[in-house]
Recover the amino acids of this structure.
């Protein structure tokens, strides 16, 4: 049994090896992750800023030092209403990536002194220049060619500062500006017609003003705003139109004025969910900077002022960009990345997630073409009204809670808020024949007729309408349109720029152009109005910018599939090849065609060197009942396993009727086997087991002789019960019956009498004797000597894997001297002694047991 | 061994006479290509409790999910598969697939493919099949065909039954995509077919590993558990995004790429990648299974 156990250990080792490998992979991963977070040291101090109204102003800063210095430095600015602590995690992450980071609180916020001047060149931008000077003085900041390596980055308020600083301070070598403006007047008073000033973005402006209006010691009316800015804002909030003073202040705070002076390579990330600073602001910045040959990389990311997503995207884009700039890898056309929102489904949650598209170049800059598609929208002229007081107004997006709305924006209930009956004109396209990726601002020409007023305020948007009626307003964005100098009743035809969005419109969907009179986020006229909105000739082409983007995954998908198919072919070919090589030439021996079993030089050695069978040679002739005799572990079962093709011999060959035996050899069909206990499907009855066994041989049912087998099993009605209910003896008899199905020419039985009671053993003995008399052959193994002696005509004695003796039972038992039977042993002995012949009394017939014990005792060890 | 008929000891002269009257045996008409035909193997497997149990689980699960939605009322939140599950039959079927493909179907496929050879070894019936003789490569082929057929049937049955259960509970409304838009009935069926076909392709990895373990160990539990363990470990490692871009080569990385079939247009890219990866793993595992079993000493 120990041999078997040893062999069974092999697969367990395999499983253990797989488990250990998997564990190792996990440990390595965790170690790698833990090891990638080097220590960052921080140091906070106040740095002198630009004095204001004769008083010194201190700026609250924190310096983040990476593990290794000197290193390039990044001046990190925060968003409106924030402080240096709102960029702490970003600063720490940059420091971990090996940058010296100086985060600071802008004037007018937090612990820093001074007032808010809205990124004015003389105040906030000058402050930043002073901080750059501070950075230059630090020994931890690395230099290249004598120049300190300094970048500036920030989002929103900080992003505009970064651009303004880069346009005024030549020491800046790299810029990263996130979700920021190009022209503050255009951003806060946008006009889809291009002509400023447009419609006041009152909700956002009010919210921003409030953000700087709080804090300790703040003026109750103006907070920490500079007085002139505060007054200009309040005037605009009252009237809805900017004063000249406000326009001048906003102009000064706009990166648009300095774009031509920016020479540092610039990364512009802009959010797609952003009603405050839409993609068009970044587009204007990119064009302005690129126009003078400065490298610009543009990324349209998820989130924005209306969405919380995309922070990690910005950080990875920024670290990648800084690495490229300081590594000297910014050359030629920069890739353009677009986050396609909700265009994939999360595998973890089943919810929609974003997907990033790569476009070779940004279409707005020289060298990259902007592909456009035209889709015709049509509809009759429609007259729409604006209610008095601008109420009720459509709700498309709201500051701050915009991110919450983004999630429910696709629900019908919210779409309903976006359209108020009678306030909107609709123009539909036909179903799109193929998908269209809208990437940017579409344009369309419309004709507006104001009925009663000399100006018009309208909100234009493009919707994606699914066949089922689902109506989605991409990114919840509308473009406000402000027309002035109209004559009531006289149409005016204008080109309208729709909101810049990223949206994949599927084939079969329609596009809907809507023109509405109200939107809650904007300043609306107080008087009731009516407009007629029409398209020239009832239909108009919609010019859609699109992008030839691809999902970020290197490699062609088809190559993966082909590799997989090739792998299958290769694996198949390998198996075929190895099989062909393994089928070593074993030849039939015609001389042995009449010999049921011939075993020659059989050796079975296991991997650990244990020889279960060692050079065994014997033959079994027709009509014999051969007993394979030996103690446990003698190699009997192993020999029989080789005989029926279950295990491969290490050396030697077995022929059955002259055919060599190998696993699956067809000649094995002439053998019926019962090896080391029965094996049945426990959930089936005895009869079903026999039926299925025979069915599996593929031979005809009438060859099986089920009646004989069932009689031999002798299970009576129990044959219909499931095998799992059988006793050991019942299974044993069923197993022998199974071996005799089809009455094979050679019957191989391994320990057949195990578990049988004496009458059954006697019965079995008779069955085997008669079976052999029909000219068939029986090979029986047993460790019971008496059993073999009574059942078999021939015997093969094995011990420790070796063949000890072979021959007929009478030959073997008779070996070792001549016997003389006498009537009266004692008297005979005296007579013989008197005659000078030595005599010993011995048992009447020498038992095989004695011979066997003698044979075994001859063995050394 | 209580009734006289079971005792069986009395000499059955009838048998003895029949045996004595036997003519000498002749070589049987044996054709290895007819051994263990698929019909026989199907009967052997279909009558097993574990097959019937797995079928019962797959039949009950969609009903349980449907009842849970009925009791739980409407869900709120973003436009996810779970939020759309009660829209109609097709969405319900998709959600059922989404909820099951990560583990339940893995276990069932591992059960069908991992248990098939190992359980024969465990019952000791394997040696009688081999001594019959069923050629070893043929034994594996026949068993794999049946195991894969059962696995694919489970993969197909879950959404198909989900469709029926869903139409009973939530009506036959057309499928709504989480990415916006709806499909008509024909389109819904077509998308479901893509989902099932892809899921079947992905389950090849689990099937192949389970099958390899099945021919390597004598304990069916080890084979089924080992294959399931691989999926669990692969999923854990796949959740570590820092391992990009190597995660893509994990056997389960593209497990859910059938979600790409739910967009307005079917995106085949990741499904092609996922199928490629699955084919490679499956080919390697199957090849090792065949090579190992061919030389294996069957001692159980």
């Amino acid at each position: 049994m120990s041999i078997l156990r040893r062999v069974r250990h092999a697969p367990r080792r395999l499983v253990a090896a797989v488990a250990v490998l998997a564990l190792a992979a996990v440990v390595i991963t965790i170690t790698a992750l833990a090891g990638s977070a080097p220590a960052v040291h921080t140091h906070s101090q106040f740095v002198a800023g630009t004095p204001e109204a004769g008083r010194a102003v201190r700026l609250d800063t924190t310096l983040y030092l990476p593990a290794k210095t000197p290193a390039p430095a990044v001046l990190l600015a925060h968003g409106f209403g924030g402080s240096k602590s709102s960029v702490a995690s970003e600063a720490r992450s940059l420091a971990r990536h090996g940058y010296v980071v100086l985060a600071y609180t802008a004037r007018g916020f937090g612990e820093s002194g001074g007032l808010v001047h809205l990124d004015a060149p003389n105040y906030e931008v000058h402050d930043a220049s002073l901080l750059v000077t501070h950075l230059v003085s630090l020994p931890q900041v690395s230099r290249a060619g004598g120049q300190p390596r300094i970048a500036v980055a920030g989002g929103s308020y900080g992003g505009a500062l970064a651009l303004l600083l880069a346009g005024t301070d030549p020491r800046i070598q790299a810029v990263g500006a996130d979700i920021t403006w190009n022209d503050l007047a255009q951003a806060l008073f946008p006009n889809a017609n291009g002509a400023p000033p447009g419609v006041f973005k009152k909700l956002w402006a009010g919210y921003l003003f409030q953000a700087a209006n709080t804090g300790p010691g703040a003026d109750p009316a103006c907070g920490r705003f500079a007085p002139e800015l505060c007054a200009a804002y309040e005037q605009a909030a009252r009237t809805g139109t900017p004063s000249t003073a406000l326009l001048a202040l906003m102009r000064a705070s706009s990166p648009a004025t300095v774009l031509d002076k920016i020479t540092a390579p610039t990364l512009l990330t802009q959010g797609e969910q952003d009603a405050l600073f839409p993609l068009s602001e970044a587009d204007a910045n990119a064009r302005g900077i690129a126009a003078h040959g400065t490298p610009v990389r543009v990324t349209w990311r998820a989130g924005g002022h209306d969405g919380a997503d995309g922070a990690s995207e910005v950080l990875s884009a920024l670290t990648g960009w800084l690495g490229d700039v300081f590594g000297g890898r910014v050359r030629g056309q920069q890739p353009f990345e677009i986050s396609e929102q909700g265009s994939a489904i999360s595998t973890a949650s089943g919810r929609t997630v974003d997907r990033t598209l790569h476009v070779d170049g940004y279409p707005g800059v020289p060298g990259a073409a902007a592909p456009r598609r035209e889709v015709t929208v049509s509809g009759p002229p429609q007259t729409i009204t604006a209610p008095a007081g601008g109420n009720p107004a459509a709700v498309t997006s709201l500051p701050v809670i915009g991110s919450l709305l983004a999630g429910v924006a696709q629900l019908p209930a919210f779409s309903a808020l976006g359209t108020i009956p009678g306030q909107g004109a609709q123009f539909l396209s036909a179903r799109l024949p193929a998908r269209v990726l809208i990437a940017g601002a579409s344009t369309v020409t419309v004709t507006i007729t104001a009925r009663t007023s000399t100006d018009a305020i309208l909100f234009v948007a493009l919707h994606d309408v699914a066949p089922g009626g689902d109506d989605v307003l991409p990114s919840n964005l509308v473009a406000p349109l402000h027309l002035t100098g109209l004559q009531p009743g006289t149409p005016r035809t204008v080109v309208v720029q729709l909101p810049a969005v990223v949206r994949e419109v599927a084939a079969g969907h329609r596009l809907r152009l809507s023109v509405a009179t109200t939107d809650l986020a904007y300043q609306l006229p107080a008087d009731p109005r009516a407009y007629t909105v029409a398209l020239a000739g009832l239909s108009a082409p919609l010019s859609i910018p699109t992008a030839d983007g691809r999902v970020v995954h290197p490699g062609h998908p088809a190559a993966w599939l082909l590799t997989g198919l090739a792998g299958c072919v290769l694996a198949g070919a390998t198996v075929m090849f190895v099989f062909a090589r393994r089928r070593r030439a074993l030849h039939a021996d015609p001389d042995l065609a009449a010999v049921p079993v011939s075993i020659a030089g059989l050796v079975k050695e296991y991997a650990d060197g244990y020889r279960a069978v060692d050079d065994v040679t014997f033959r079994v002739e027709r009509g014999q009942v051969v007993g394979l005799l030996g103690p446990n572990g003698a190699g009997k079962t192993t020999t029989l396993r080789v005989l029926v093709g279950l295990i491969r011999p290490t050396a030697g060959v077995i022929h059955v009727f002259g055919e060599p035996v190998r696993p699956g050899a067809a000649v094995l069909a002439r053998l019926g086997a019962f090896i080391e206990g029965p094996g049945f499907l426990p959930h089936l009855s005895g009869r079903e087991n026999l039926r299925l066994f025979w069915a599996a041989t593929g031979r005809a049912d009438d060859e099986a002789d089920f009646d004989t087998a069932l009689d031999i099993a002798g299970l009576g009605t129990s044959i219909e019960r499931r095998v799992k209910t059988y006793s050991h003896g019942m299974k044993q008899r069923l197993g022998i019956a199974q071996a005799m199905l089809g009455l094979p020419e050679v019957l191989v039985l391994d320990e057949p009498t195990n578990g049988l009671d004496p009458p059954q053993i006697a019965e079995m003995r008779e069955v085997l004797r008669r079976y052999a008399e029909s000219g068939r052959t029986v090979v029986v193994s047993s460790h019971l000597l008496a059993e073999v002696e009574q059942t078999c005509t021939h015997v093969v004695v094995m011990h420790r894997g070796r063949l000890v003796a072979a021959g007929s039972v009478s030959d073997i038992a008779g070996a070792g001297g001549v016997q003389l039977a006498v009537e009266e042993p004692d008297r005979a002995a005296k007579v013989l002694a008197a005659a000078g012949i030595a005599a010993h009394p011995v048992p009447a017939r020498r038992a095989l047991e004695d011979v066997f014990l003698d044979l075994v005792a001859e063995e050394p060890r | 061994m209580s009734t006289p008929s079971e005792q069986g000891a009395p000499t059955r002269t009838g048998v003895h006479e029949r045996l004595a009257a036997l003519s000498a045996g002749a070589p049987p008409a044996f054709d290895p290509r007819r051994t263990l035909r698929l019909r026989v193997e199907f009967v052997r497997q279909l009558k097993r409790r574990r097959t019937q149990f797995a079928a019962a689980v797959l039949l009950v699960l969609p009903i349980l999910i449907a009842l849970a939605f009925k009791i739980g009322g409407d869900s709120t939140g973003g436009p996810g598969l779970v939020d759309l599950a009660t829209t109609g039959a097709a969405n319900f079927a998709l959600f059922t697939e989404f909820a099951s493909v990560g583990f339940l179907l893995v276990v069932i496929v591992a059960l069908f493919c991992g248990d098939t050879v190992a359980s024969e070894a465990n019952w000791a019936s394997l040696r009688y099949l081999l001594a019959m003789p069923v050629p070893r490569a043929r034994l594996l082929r026949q068993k794999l065909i049946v195991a894969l057929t059962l696995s694919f049937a489970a993969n197909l049955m879950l959404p198909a039954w989900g469709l029926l259960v869903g139409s009973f509970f939530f009506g036959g409304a057309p499928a709504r995509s989480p990415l916006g838009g709806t499909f008509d009935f024909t389109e819904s069926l077509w998308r479901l077919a893509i989902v099932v076909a892809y899921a079947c392709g992905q389950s090849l990895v689990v099937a192949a590993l389970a099958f390899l373990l099945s021919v390597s160990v004598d304990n069916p539990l080890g084979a089924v558990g080992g294959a399931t363990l691989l999926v669990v470990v692969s999923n854990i490692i796949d959740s570590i995004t820092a391992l990009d871009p190597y995660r893509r080569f994990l056997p389960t990385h593209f497990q859910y790429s059938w979600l790409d079939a739910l967009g307005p247009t079917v995106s085949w890219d990741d499904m092609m990648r996922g199928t490629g990866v699955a084919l490679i793993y499956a080919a390697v595992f199957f090849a090792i299974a065949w090579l190992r079993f061919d030389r294996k000493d069957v001692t159980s």
About this structure: The CA atoms of residues 634 and 663 of chain A lie 23 Å apart. Confidence is low (pLDDT under 50) at residues 1-10, 405-413 of chain A.
